[in-house]
Specification:
- There is one protein chain.
- This protein has a single domain, classed as 3-Layer(aba) Sandwich (Protein Transport Mog1p, Chain A), CATH 3.40.1000.
- Helix content is about 20%, strand content about 25%.
- The protein has 5 helices and 9 strands, in the order E-H-E-H-H-E-E-E-H-E-E-E-E-H.
- The radius of gyration is 15 Å and the shape is globular.
- The two termini are about 30 Å apart.
Length: about 220
């Protein structure tokens, strides 16, 4: 199952959201967090979006889809039940450099999913490609979710990817993105790829947000 850290470990190097906000959960190494570097503004004007090799979003969603609370807008109760099982503890948190984060935790199984709505940087996946890619051990584009490009990252440079953690970013528009950080429960570690599970969670969140936009 998914094991995510409370709202702060979702973006590994980009924002330090999950790891930087609350720090890595017990048993997790030094994997960067969502806002570590991606959220840091440059001293000069950024290039036109997308940049740094980030893919263009063909059918963008409006910024209004992230105007709500990730604790209520990212997943439906049914989606959370499929992803984490029950009971699930929901913990909201604000990450000033990026936006609002919500941690969904199954305290019995140890699985956790953190979702970050980046409403601050306005640079979409470009910041991830520019700032996070050079600082992680594994960085790979994954299959689109609901028509939106995604990229996953995990681990430190020169090291193998974490067996229990992965962060997936979804570009909802060239200047809009969310991140989903997944922490596997003990029973799933070493048995499933955390990036595959994180991708499933990202797909669920994209599905919910797309419906919110009426698309």
């Amino acid at each position: 199952m998914i094991r995510c850290v409370v709202p702060v470990c979702a973006v590994v190097v980009v924002v330090g959201v999950l790891s930087a906000c609350t720090g890595r959960a017990p048993g997790h190494g030094g994997t960067p967090s969502p806002g570590d570097s991606a959220a840091r503004p440059s001293s000069s004007a950024p290039p036109a979006l997308p940049y740094a090799g980030a893919p263009k979003v063909a059918s963008p969603l409006p910024a209004s889809v992230l105007a709500g609370d990730p604790c209520t807008d990212a997943f439906t109760p049914a989606q959370i039940d499929v992803l984490l099982g029950s009971p699930v503890k929901i913990t909201p948190r604000k990450l000033p450099p990026l936006g609002d984060v919500c941690a969904f935790s199954n305290l019995e199984r140890g699985g956790r999913i953190d979702v970050l709505f980046d409403t601050v940087t306005h640079s979409g996946l470009s910041k991830v490609y520019q700032n996070t890619k050079p600082k992680v051990g594994m960085f790979k584009p994954m299959a689109d979710v609901q028509g939106f490009p995604t990229v996953a990252h995990s681990g430190q440079p020169g090291q193998k990817p974490d067996i229990d953690f992965c962060m997936v970013y979804v570009g909802l528009a060239d200047d809009l993105d969310i991140s989903v950080s997944l922490y596997l429960g003990q029973a799933k570690r070493g048995r499933v790829d955390p990036c595959d599970v994180a991708w499933q969670a990202a797909d669920a969140a994209a599905t919910t947000l797309k419906a919110k936009a009426g698309k």
